[in-house]
User: Which sequence fits this backbone?
């Protein structure tokens, strides 16, 4: 795990340039930085040491190839054994088997990887290639600068190359405010693109997983339970591979409880688990839930080393500008707040954290999936974002239309449920959930791992029959049944509460002061109807729209306007 930066088509003077680039994202690699110039490539690596602490430094070289990567290849031991690489390995790095196999197998090697990565790889006699993992767990961005191609783990590094002031992509900003995230290849910065999940060298593919989706496979409940147990255990086992302390983030939900159950099974010592709970009297009024009680029940039943972290109004005002800084590719998802707070709490105790991202998308957990399966007269509606952006001229209609285009997955035989799942995996999962996890944890030098997004487990889950995903009022039916058997304390059949942070209650007392401040920000004025923005802060009926505007204003001031976090907080938020 780390941050990478590089220049394809580099010349001698780019040694200083790539050094500036990697310094801009040095928070991703607190264990040290290395740079290298190599035949038209300028490469830089900021390392967070996880596997082979002494020998796993990058760039990596073989007789026939060079590689620099961010992430983890979890099945590196199996790759080495299957291809008899032992005598050829010089390090214990999880990326070295890929380095050796790429010159022999070419792009076919990526289909054999179980892991998360954003990387640059060049075999002798070939052009350098960029690649991103199947689900987009790890980020990778590109920017053209003359006849050179710059790449990096975060956009901020690309602008450090020439100290250029970023320019706002208005259409992407509208998407952010309407959907909570941006879509597709284009980012919120003009001239900066992201590789899509599963792409090699921005080849135009939709992604390695969504490109291979197919209809459900015939499978009985009993056989599915046995297969699920084996696949979950195998995925969690390889996701634990590390030479540093690892643990998990434990909510009160099904997904993290399942991960905790497997970690407890696989470890002889108590596994360290962190849970965030909200300190606020407005929880019930806002539909938010404090998950500590449910998490503690699971932790006690599994004998976890459970650590409780609290989040209150003071944390909210302190962390909001920090989150805006961390998310240079932004999302306005309020779950960034507790995720950042958990990472802050876990730093110094853990270096690797397992989480439950992907469980809902793969096992059919969201209520919108169940609504999509109902007829209209029973309240059914498409499983797409419910856009409400009164401060945008079109109310967010343009962003929703672009979401529908990005989400369209056409494959013969897919069920309506699978279509909804595939749409989420092409849009919301990489550009909101996984982006949030990467930035909030890497800001603290932590690695986040997602066992549900292992390609083998994901393929199994996506192709389950619909009846094993959604049954009656329950989503994730098979996963719930498995959890009820293996961890009864998790209360697997309780109604899914969703995850709500009580931001509206924290903002409300200061709304009258915040409205004019937010409306005065240049980036807000470039995208929004300013009178409508003021109305959002004047009228409590629009309280849900306040946080997206607030965090976008902070983000714009920091990443476009060039303000420090403190300057942005003073201007946009004032003093509590």
Assistant:
């Amino acid at each position: 795990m780390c941050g990478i930066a590089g220049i394809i088509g580099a010349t001698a003077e780019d040694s200083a340039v790539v050094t500036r680039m990697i310094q801009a994202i040095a928070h991703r690699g607190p264990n040290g930085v290395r740079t290298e110039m190599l035949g038209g490539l300028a490469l830089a690596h900021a390392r967070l040491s996880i596997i082979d602490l002494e020998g796993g430094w990058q760039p990596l070289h073989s007789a026939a190839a060079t590689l620099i990567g961010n992430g983890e290849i979890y099945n590196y031991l199996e790759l080495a054994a299957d291809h008899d690489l032992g005598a050829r390995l010089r390090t214990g790095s999880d990326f070295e088997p890929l380095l050796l196999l790429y010159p022999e197998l070419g792009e076919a090697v990526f289909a054999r990887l179980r892991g998360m990565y954003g990387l640059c790889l060049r075999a002798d006699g070939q052009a350098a290639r960029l690649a991103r993992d199947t689900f987009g767990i790890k980020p990778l961005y590109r920017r053209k600068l003359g006849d050179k191609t710059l790449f990096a783990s975060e956009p901020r590094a690309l602008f450090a190359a020439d100290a250029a002031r970023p320019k706002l992509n208005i259409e992407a900003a509208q998407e952010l405010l309407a959907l909570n995230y941006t879509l597709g290849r284009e980012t919120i910065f003009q001239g900066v693109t992201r590789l899509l999940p599963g792409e090699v060298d921005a080849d135009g593919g939709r992604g390695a997983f969504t490109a291979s989706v197919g209809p459900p496979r015939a499978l009985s409940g009993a056989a599915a339970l046995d297969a699920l147990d084996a696949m979950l255990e195998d995925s969690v086992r390889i996701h634990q591979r590390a030479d540093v302390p690892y643990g998990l983030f434990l909510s009160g939900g099904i997904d993290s409880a399942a991960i905790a159950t497997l970690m407890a099974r696989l470890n002889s010592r108590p596994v360290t688990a962190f849970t965030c709970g909200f300190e606020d009297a407005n929880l019930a009024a806002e539909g938010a839930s404090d998950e500590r009680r449910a998490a503690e029940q699971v932790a006690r039943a599994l004998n976890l080393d459970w650590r409780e972290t609290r989040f209150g109004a003071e944390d909210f005002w302190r962390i909001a500008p920090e989150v805006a800084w961390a998310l240079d590719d932004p999302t306005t998802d309020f779950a960034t707040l507790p995720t950042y707070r958990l990472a802050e709490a876990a730093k110094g105790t853990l270096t690797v954290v397992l989480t439950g991202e992907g469980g809902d998308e793969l096992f059919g957990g969201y209520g919108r999936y169940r609504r999509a399966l109902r007829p209209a007269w029973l309240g059914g509606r498409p499983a797409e974002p419910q856009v409400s952006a009164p401060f945008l001229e079109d109310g967010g209609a343009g962003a929703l239309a672009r979401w529908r285009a990005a989400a369209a997955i056409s494959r013969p035989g897919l069920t309506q449920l699978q279509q909804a799942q595939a749409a989420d995996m092409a849009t919301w999962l990489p550009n909101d959930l996984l982006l949030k996890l990467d930035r909030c944890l890497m800001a603290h030098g932590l690695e986040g791992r997602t066992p549900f997004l292992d390609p083998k487990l994901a393929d199994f889950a996506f192709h389950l029959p619909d009846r094993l995903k959604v049954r009656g009022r329950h989503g994730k039916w098979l996963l719930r049944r498995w959890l009820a058997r293996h961890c009864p304390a998790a209360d697997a059949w309780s109604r899914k509460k969703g995850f709500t942070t009580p931001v509206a209650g924290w903002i409300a007392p200061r709304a009258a002061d915040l409205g004019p401040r937010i409306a005065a920000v240049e980036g807000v004025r470039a995208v929004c109807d300013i009178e409508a923005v003021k109305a959002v802060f004047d009228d409590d009926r629009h309280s849900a729209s306040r946080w997206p505007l607030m965090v976008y204003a902070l983000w714009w001031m920091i990443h476009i306007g060039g303000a420090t976090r403190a300057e942005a907080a003073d201007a946009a938020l004032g003093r509590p």
